[in-house]
Automatic annotation (TrEMBL):
Any single GO BP term: vesicle tethering involved in exocytosis
Pfam families from the UniProt entry: EXOC6_Sec15_N, Sec15_C
Known function: Component of the exocyst complex involved in the docking of exocytic vesicles with fusion sites on the plasma membrane.
Protein name: Exocyst complex component
GO CC field: exocyst; plasma membrane
Ranges in a coiled coil: 82-109
Claim: Transport is one of the keywords in the record: yes
Residues covered by the Exocyst complex subunit EXOC6/Sec15 C-terminal domain: 421-770
Family statement drawn from the similarity comment of this UniProt entry: Belongs to the SEC15 family.
Domain Exocyst complex component EXOC6/Sec15 N-terminal, first and last residues per copy: 52-221
Gene3D superfamilies: Dsl1p vesicle tethering complex, Tip20p subunit, domain D, Exocyst complex subunit Sec15 C-terminal domain, N-terminal subdomain
Taxonomic source organism: Cebus imitator
Top-rank lineage group of the source organism: Eukaryota
Length: 815
């Protein structure tokens, strides 16, 4: 029962479900019916569903039939009318077909024209679009073409600016085009190319500056020389609002416009050609010779590229290298002034360029860098000058070098560089200059002294007299009163030496110019140098002349006279120095001239040489002495050699009339003493072992001739018998032996007023032994085997007795 109910319930549900599916089929679009049918087939009652579907179809057919039956008459009527219309429609169709054919035939050209118009419109649209795109690309291409032109003409900084505009303004607008991508890819390469080319231009500039530094420095030093000449002129004239040209006034303002379109300015290597100016034309500014645009361009380019520090380091490094090359002097620089000038020109040129770079760029170089370079340059320059100037032996070259160094220092001082060390170094060169002057004047003095005739200067007219007096300060009223011809007491070397001393002082003064020294310092320098000239150079020259082997007594006498007058002229030299330095001699610390001492020493040396020379002459005459010490004949006149010697002495002392009295007296006394001493040595010579009393008598005659000469007063000023005292030793010795007064000698020996006070027992014994030997030899020859004669034996005994007593005196004296 329950099963029947359950089957009935399921059947109802199935029927309801089939009804629902049928409604969905009726109401659903055919495309979406698949899922509905699938639900039918998924179930198990599709057969029943098919039955229901058939039933539903039949129902709908019946309804359609009913509806058709209801509308059938109207349908028939419509079909009838439609058949009627069909004939008309066919006619109409034929007419339309004909009309269409005609229209197609007639409109074919229009269609073709319309097609052409369509193509034209399309092309027009394409052209317009293309023009628009080209108008957008054209500025890019123009900028790129401009960039290439600027690169080609080496206008690198404008090219870099163009590149920036191209990259940031134009290319972003057309970035989707392929050629723009190529441009974008080339931009870094172009930047590097600009960077490299600008650096190449900078290298060319640096190389050109290095080669032309001497020209730049030469121009700057000419400017400084002109300014100094102008200042000197202004100082000599009343100052009417004139001022020294400042450093800023000397600058020529440069056109630093970087974006210059002039190809020449872009391509210039840095140096402009300037013809040599005449002396009377204005010298162009040193910076006029230089085009600094390569530096400015490169600096701006690297700044724009963000590599300014790299550029600064490179520039400074290269300039340091160039500075070291410039500061390396050539090995032969000391040979000519041009060598020094070129060296200075290069240094000045280097620092003129650096100074201009300092003032026209911001930070490329700074003051610390310039000061560092200058310190290095100053130390190397001073070291080079010390080394090379030490080779200079020509004072004119040293003086020219000093003037060049002063100009070098003044030039750099105008540009603000400290140059005190250069002036300090010039003071060192001043000492060297003094040494070279002394060497030069040593040669001058030597030539003057060698060429002098050592004779008083003869004057035959008033004109010649005034000329000599104008050259040398000499006043002698008595000489002025004498008629012409007359003679100055001194020889020609006196005015020549005096004038050369003044020339030396002038030469010293020349070196002190422009050294910024005070008058006192200049005066002290001149006086010290002049003292060296007098005490060393002139003194040595005079001493060399005096010590010359072939110098004669006449020359020596004239030298004494000359030095006497030169000594008197020293006060005039003092006045001369005072006049040119304007420093009074009374000023504290003023150095005094040592000329008086120099000439006194020379005169004393000449005097000593006179004494020595006289003695040598006497010795030469004495070498002619030929005594026969064994003669027994008694002579009646002096020896010939001695007569000649006395005649020579008389003529010599006659020349001494112009000498100071003491000099002549000392020379005469010295000659007599030397003659007496030489005669004594001749008498007591060891080689003369024997002599006779006859020979002693001849010797006595010669001594008497000498005494006669002494009594004749060959030189005035001696007191009576003073000159004879030179021969007193010989006289007493000879008197003792000729008079044979041994008893008196032996008895009075040692008494202060004894007759033979000057006879030495040793001398007496030596001479007595020579006579004793001669007597013994004579006795042997007269009687070789017999006994001696009584008187000879007695005399021999006496001699032996006297000799014994003399030995006793000698022994007691020694004890």
């Amino acid at each position: 029962m329950e099963q029947g109910k359950m089957a009935e319930a399921e059947s109802l549900e199935t029927a309801a479900e089939h009804e629902r599916i049928l409604r969905e089929i009726e109401s659903t679009d055919t495309a979406c019916i698949g899922p509905t049918l699938r639900s039918v087939y998924d179930g198990e009652e599709h057969g029943r569903f098919m039955e229901k579907l058939e039933t539903r179809i039949r129902n709908h057919d019946r309804e359609i039939e009913k509806m058709c039956n209801f509308h059938y008459q109207g349908f028939v009527d419509s079909i009838t009318e439609l058949l009627k219309v069909r004939g008309e429609a066919q006619k109409l169709k034929n007419q339309v077909t004909d009309t269409n054919r005609k229209l197609q035939h007639e409109g074919k050209e229009l269609v073709i024209a319309m097609e052409e118009l369509k193509q034209c419109r399309l092309q027009q649209r394409n052209i317009s679009a293309t023009v628009d795109k080209l108008m957008l690309c054209l500025p890019v291409l123009e900028m790129y073409s401009k960039l290439r032109d600027q690169m080609k003409t080496k206008r690198h900084y404008p090219a870099l600016k163009t590149l920036e505009h191209l990259e940031h303004t134009y290319l972003p607008q057309v970035s989707h085009y392929r050629f723009c991508k190529v441009m974008v890819d080339n931009i870094p390469k172009l930047r590097e190319e600009i960077k490299d080319v600008s650096m190449s231009d900078l290298k060319d500039f640096l190389e050109s500056i290095r080669k032309h530094s001497d020209k730049i420095g030469e121009t700057a030093m000419k400017q400084a020389q002109q300014q100094r000449n102008l200042d000197n002129i202004v100082l000599q004239q009343p100052r009417i609002g004139s001022k020294r040209k400042s450093k800023k006034d000397t600058y020529i303002i440069f056109d630093t416009e970087i974006e210059s379109t002039s190809p020449k300015s872009e391509q210039d290597s840095g140096i402009l050609d300037v013809e040599d100016e005449e002396d009377d034309e204005e010298v162009p500014g040193a910076q006029d010779l230089v085009d600094f645009s390569p530096v400015y361009r490169c600096l701006h380019i690297y700044s724009v590229l963000g590599a300014r520090e790299t550029f600064e380091n490179y520039y400074r490094k290269q300039r340091r290298k160039q500075a070291r090359l410039v500061l390396q002097p050539p090995s032969n620089m000391h040979e000519t002034l041009d060598g020094y000038r070129k060296y200075f020109n290069q240094i000045v040129g280097f620092f003129v360029v650096e100074d201009h770079i300092l003032h026209t760029t911001q930070g490329l170089v700074n003051r610390a860098y310039i000061d560092e370079l200058w310190e290095m340059a100053l130390s190397k320059t001073i070291a080079a000058l010390r080394t090379h100037s030490s080779y200079c032996s020509d004072p004119n070259l040293v003086l020219d070098l000093k003037n060049l160094i002063v100009l070098f220092a003044d030039t750099l001082q105008v540009y603000g560089f400290p140059v005190n060390q250069l002036f300090d170094m010039l003071l060192e060169i001043r000492d060297q200059y003094s040494e070279t002057l002394l060497k030069k004047w040593a040669g001058i003095f030597r030539n003057i002294l060698d060429s002098d005739n050592y004779s008083p200067i003869p004057v035959t007219s008033e004109e010649v007299y005034k000329k000599v007096v104008g050259q040398f300060p000499f006043q002698d009223i008595e000489l002025e009163k004498q008629p012409f011809p007359k003679k100055f007491p001194f020889s020609e070397f006196v005015p020549k030496v005096y004038n050369q001393i003044k020339e030396f002082i002038y030469a010293c003064l020349k070196f002190s110019e422009d050294l910024h020294l005070s008058s006192t310092e200049v005066d002290d320098m001149i006086r010290k140098s002049t003292n060296l000239l007098l005490t060393r150079t002139l003194s040595n020259s005079l001493q060399n002349v005096i010590k010359r082997k072939n110098i004669g007594l006449t020359e020596l006498v004239q030298i004494i006279i000359n030095t006497t007058h030169l000594e008197k002229s020293c006060k005039y030299l003092e006045e001369f120095i005072t006049n040119i330095t304007n420093v009074l001699p009374e000023t504290v610390h003023t150095t005094k001239l040592y000329g008086t001492t120099t000439f006194k020493d020379a005169r004393h040396a000449a005097e000593e040489e006179i004494y020595t020379n006289l003695n040598q002459k006497i010795d030469q005459f004495l070498q002619l002495a030929d005594y026969d010490w064994m003669t027994g004949d008694l002579g009646n006149k002096a020896s010939d050699y001695l007569v000649d010697l006395i005649a020579f002495l008389r003529s010599t002392f006659a020349v001494f009339t112009h000498l100071p009295g003491k000099v002549a007296q000392t020379a005469c006394m010295s000659a007599c003493k030397h003659l007496a001493t030489s005669l004594m040595q001749l008498l007591l010579e060891a080689e003369v072992r024997q002599l006779t009393l006859g020979a002693l008598q001849q010797f006595n005659l010669d001594v008497r001739e000498c005494e006669q000469f002494a009594r004749s007063g060959p030189v005035p000023g001696f007191q009576e018998d003073t000159l004879q005292l030179a021969f007193i030793d010989l006289r007493q010795l000879l008197d003792l032996f000729i008079q044979w007064d041994w008893s008196t000698y032996l008895a009075d020996y040692g008494q202060p007023n004894c007759k033979y006070l000057r006879v030495n027992p040793v001398t007496a014994l030596t001479l007595l032994e020579k006579i004793s030997r001669e007597m013994k030899d004579t006795s042997r020859k007269n009687n070789m085997f017999a006994q001696f004669r009584k008187n000879e034996r007695d005399k021999q005994k006496l001699i032996d007795t006297v000799a014994k007593q003399l030995r006793g005196l000698i022994s007691s004296h020694h004890s």
